[in-house]
Amino acid sequence: MPHYAVLADHTPDICPGSNAKTRARAMESAGPDGMQKIADDLELSYILEPQHLDPTHRVIAVVDAPSIEAVNQYVFDTGLFQWNTVETFALTPISEMMAKLSDTPVVFDCRGPTAPCARTARTDAWQPSHHAARHPGAEPPEHARRTPADHGP
Ligand SMILES: [Zn+2]
Fold first, then answer.
1. Would 71 be classed as within a structural domain?
2. What is the number of structural domains in the chain?
3. Which residue in 19, 33, 79, 131 could disulfide with 144, CB within 3.0 to 4.6 Å?
4. Within a domain: residue 152?
5. What's the gap in Å between 20 CA and the centre of ligand 1?
């Protein structure tokens, strides 16, 4: 079954550690037994059971579940959404993601205004060697044709 991540966070004022109403609700549905029963009912198992990210007010879990809908139902049924902002994510191992990249066309090439070499070019555009080295045979852009005097004091 696919793996999913659940990230939850809340503010200190509604933390079950400090807020009586939230604590009562959390003990009702998100205690250890309650969460496990809800997980079992949804055929969801833990790869990483819910972990508190000390000392923040955040929680992370990684689950094995039949679908993202089952994960979202887990968030509703446990009540986690009532005192947390919860995000759920489908997970893809980096090794699989990297293998897919070779089949994916690039969107930004090295000539775009946000390309790393373009950002570098802004700071050392007065160095003709920069553009020539990174873009052999290409016409230098306007900013690369300026001299240090053009940039002012
Ligand atoms: Zn908290």
1. yes
2. 2
3. 131
4. no
5. 12
**What's the pLDDT tens digit per position in 29-57?**
888 788 999 999 999 999 999 999 999 99
Residues with CB under 5 A from ligand 1 (ion): 15, 57
What is the 13 CA–ligand 1 centroid distance (Å)?
8
**Same structural domain, 89 and 131:** no
Domain that holds residue 26: 3-93
Separation of 14 CA from ligand 1 center, angstroms?
7
Output the CA 151–ligand 1 centroid distance in Å. Answer: 52
Residue 151 lies in a domain: no
* 6: alpha, beta or left? (left if phi > 0; alpha if psi -120 to 50): beta
Q: Show Cβ contacts of residue 140 under 8 Å, excluding neighbours closer than 6 positions.
A: 128, 131, 132
Q: Give yes or no: residues 35 and 55 share one domain.
A: yes
CA of 11 to the centre of ligand 1 (A): 7
> Same domain for 11 and 82?
yes
What is the spatial distance between Cα 41 and Cα 3, in angstroms, rounded to a whole number? 17
Ligand 1: distance of its center to the CA of 60 in Å?
A: 13
Per residue in 2-17, pLDDT tens?
999 999 999 999 999 9
Q: How far apart are CA 47 and CA 5, in angstroms?
A: 9
